[in-house]
Design a protein that fits this description.
- The chain has helices at residues 4-8, 22-35, 70-82, 94-98, 102-115, 133-145, 165-175, 190-199, 209-213, and strands at 11-15, 39-42, 56-61, 87-91, 121-125, 150-152, 180-184, 203-206.
- With 218 residues, it is of the alpha/beta class.
- It has a single domain (4-213), classed as Aldolase class I (TIM Barrel, Alpha-Beta Barrel).
- The protein has an eight-stranded parallel β-barrel, surrounded by six helices.
- The longest helix has 14 residues, at 22-35.
- The radius of gyration is 16 Å and the shape is globular.
- The model has no long low-confidence stretch (mean pLDDT 98).
Length: 218
């Protein structure tokens, strides 16, 4: 059985609402320290935050649409790296994915990877709810070929929805432990979080981390 501390250390404690304030980000960081989460994940404009000891700093890139030019995504990632982030979660170009231009998808991921030193963890958001199973597999393969460290289900902003157990399992099967799998989007209770882990998620993106963790004992 997963303990509260173990689950906490899998969580990117997240605040990506456009209206989020610096005070709210500061409170997010404080709460991350209290809960023992792996990191906080915030917007690129809000990286100037005091982190508790042991808490990593993650941000997003090409968020939330993914429809930015590859050069713009790379520049955004480089700027965040210069600001001291430990991890970057980039969104793929879904338009390229939907027409099967996997070389194009791989190339833009590679451009962001080049902008991120190897010590910076690169997660690739494939927006799994908007893709077919075949497209999910292809997106994971393109991410791996481009040098990503993780594949991630969702931004949490797409109308198609967030993470599903089925998508997480398919992603985990495709990357075979060579990459991490992050489940995010719509995970609001303990049972759902544990189901994602059981399906193969190695990281969780949560905004309501406390509510999820309160369902577990130490």
């Amino acid at each position: 059985m997963t303990t509260r501390a173990e689950l906490a250390h899998m969580i990117d404690h997240t605040l990506l609402k456009p209206e989020a304030t610096a005070d709210q980000v500061a409170e997010l960081a404080r709460e991350a320290g209290e809960l023992g989460t792996f990191s906080i994940c915030v917007s690129p404009s809000q990286l100037d935050v005091n982190l508790p000891e042991g808490v990593k700093l993650a941000t997003v890139c090409g968020f939330p649409s993914g429809a930015h030019a590859a050069a713009v995504k790379a520049a955004e990632a480089a700027d965040s790296v210069a600001a001291g982030v430990d991890e970057v979660d980039m969104v793929i170009n879904l338009g390229l994915a939907k027409v099967g231009d996997w070389d194009g998808v791989q190339a833009e991921i590679a451009a962001v990877r080049e902008a991120c030193p190897s010590k910076v963890v690169l997660k690739v958001i494939i927006e799994s709810a908007a893709l077919t199973d075949e497209e999910i597999v292809a997106a994971c393969k393109a991410s791996e070929a481009a040098g990503a460290d993780f594949v991630k289900t969702s931004t949490g902003f797409h109308p198609a929805g967030g993470a599903s157990v089925e998508a997480v399992r398919l992603m985990a099967d495709t990357v075979g432990g060579r990459l991490g799998v992050k489940a995010s989007g719509g995970i609001r209770d303990t049972a759902t979080a544990l189901a994602m882990v059981e399906a193969g998620a190695t990281r969780l993106g949560l905004s309501g981390s406390r509510a999820v963790l309160d369902g577990l004992s130490d």
